[in-house]
Amino acid sequence: MIVYIFGNGNIKYSDFEEFYLKLIKRLANENVQFIVCDFRGVDTLIMEYLKCETEKVTIIHIGEKLRYLPDKYKTKVSQWKIKGGFEDDKSRDNYAINICTHFIAKDFNSNKNRISGTQKNIELCQSLNKIKIDE
Question: What is the pTM for the complete model shown?
Answer without folding.
Answer: 0.94
